[in-house]
């Protein structure tokens, strides 16, 4: 179809200040062009990062802010240069909507590390307009940042895969940790953590969930299929598990000591940080030096990795554990998320929600 240059308005739910309370908000979508895809949002996952952003936990929030970066929807219209997508197709869009396309990261198809990447909300697009996220009726995304969804995966299941699942898949792939038989640890059993268990088990790993209490032990083992469960405050069990893991995926989004977990790693083991934390983390260097261990980080995944992960998900016949809510429940969902009271990912049924009083 032709260029989508007409101005469009839509309605979403936005935070107006650091209270983080969301309410209906009508706004103008950014200028569009020949490479853009106009999408009607069906579902949008709820990530802990959304809470950080609406409450200005990182000190860089701009309001009004429409959050939501795990978007699944239907293509309503495409620009004249769009070749990958057609009207009526169900597609996904994640955290990024722009990059420079010239730097080493972009040229290497890992655009999530581009220094000039553009977030899908709480950022400014190339036309100078603020970006807004997926807690809205419609969005506009450049085709480069839209992903194809394999047939056979329920759209509500796809939403949390676009951030939580690829966040786990990307470092396992990059660091050569996809081979079967490895022993992995998942620290924290929230949205990302539960994806870690599912994906690592599907890769044939022996998976140990590490948590601060035994509250989720039955769920981890019975529901998600973890092989073992460690309570970090149980000194005896932690000592018995020393030097046993090839890697640990650390999903905890608040400050915590690293030493207890570094001791669990084998020689050359990796502690992979994924939680967004705004306070310094500490460790003593011998814990790293004496096992040639690595502390590293990883950030979501590329479009290429996202589509690879979706194919892996379909091939293995995997399912995630989600709780579907309507938009008018979103403030309560945020409250529960902060209390870790969700098993394990909220997904907003945007299409089925009444976004604004008529």
Automatic annotation (TrEMBL):
GO MF, one annotated term: zinc ion binding
Domain Enoyl reductase (ER): 20-348
GO biological process terms, semicolon-separated: lignin biosynthetic process
UniProt KW keywords: Metal-binding, Oxidoreductase, Zinc
InterPro entries membership: ADH-like_C, ADH-like_N, ADH_Zn_CS, CAD-like, ER, GroES-like_sf, NAD(P)-bd_dom_sf
Required co-factors: Zn(2+)
UniProt cross-references to Pfam families, sorted A to Z: ADH_N (PF08240), ADH_zinc_N (PF00107)
Taxonomy, superkingdom: Eukaryota
Family to which the UniProt record says this protein belongs: Belongs to the zinc-containing alcohol dehydrogenase family.
Name this polypeptide is given: Enoyl reductase (ER) domain-containing protein
Source organism (scientific name): Lotus japonicus
């Amino acid at each position: 179809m032709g260029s989508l240059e007409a101005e469009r308005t839509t309605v979403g739910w936005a935070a107006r200040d650091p209270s983080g309370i969301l309410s209906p908000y009508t706004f103008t979508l950014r200028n569009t062009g020949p490479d853009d895809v106009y999408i009607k949002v069906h579902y949008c996952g709820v990530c802990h990062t959304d809470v950080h952003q609406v409450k200005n936990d990182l000190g860089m929030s701009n309001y009004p802010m429409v959050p939501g970066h795990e978007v699944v929807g239907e293509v309503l219209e495409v620009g004249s240069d769009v070749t990958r997508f057609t009207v009526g197709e169900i597609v996904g869009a994640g955290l990024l909507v722009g990059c420079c396309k010239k730097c080493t990261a972009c040229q290497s198809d890992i655009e999530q590390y581009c220094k000039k990447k553009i977030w899908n909300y709480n950022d400014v697009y190339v036309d100078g307009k603020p970006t807004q996220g997926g807690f809205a009726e419609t969005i506009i995304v450049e085709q480069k940042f839209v992903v194809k969804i394999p047939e056979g995966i329920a759209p509500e299941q796809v939403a949390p895969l676009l951030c939580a699942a690829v966040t786990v898949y990307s470092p396992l792939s990059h660091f050569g940790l996809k081979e079967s038989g490895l022993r992995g640890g998942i620290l924290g059993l929230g949205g990302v953590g539960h994806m870690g268990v599912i994906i690592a088990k599907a890769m044939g790993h022996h998976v140990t969930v590490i948590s601060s209490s035994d509250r989720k032990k039955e769920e981890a083992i019975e529901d998600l299929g973890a092989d073992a469960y460690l309570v970090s405050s149980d000194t005896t069990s932690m000592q018995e598990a020393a030097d046993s893991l090839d890697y640990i995926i650390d999903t905890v989004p608040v400050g915590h000591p690293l030493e207890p977990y570094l001791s669990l790693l084998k020689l050359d083991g990796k502690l992979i940080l994924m939680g967004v934390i705004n306070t310094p983390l500490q460790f003593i260097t011998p814990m790293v030096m004496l096992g040639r261990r690595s502390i590293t980080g990883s950030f979501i995944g590329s479009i290429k990795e996202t589509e690879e992960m979706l194919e892996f998900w379909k091939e293995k016949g995997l399912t995630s554990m989600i709780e579907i809510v309507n938009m008018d429940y979103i403030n309560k969902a945020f409250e529960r998320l902060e209390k870790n009271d969700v098993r394990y990912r909220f997904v907003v049924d945007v299409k089925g929600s009444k976004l604004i009083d008529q």
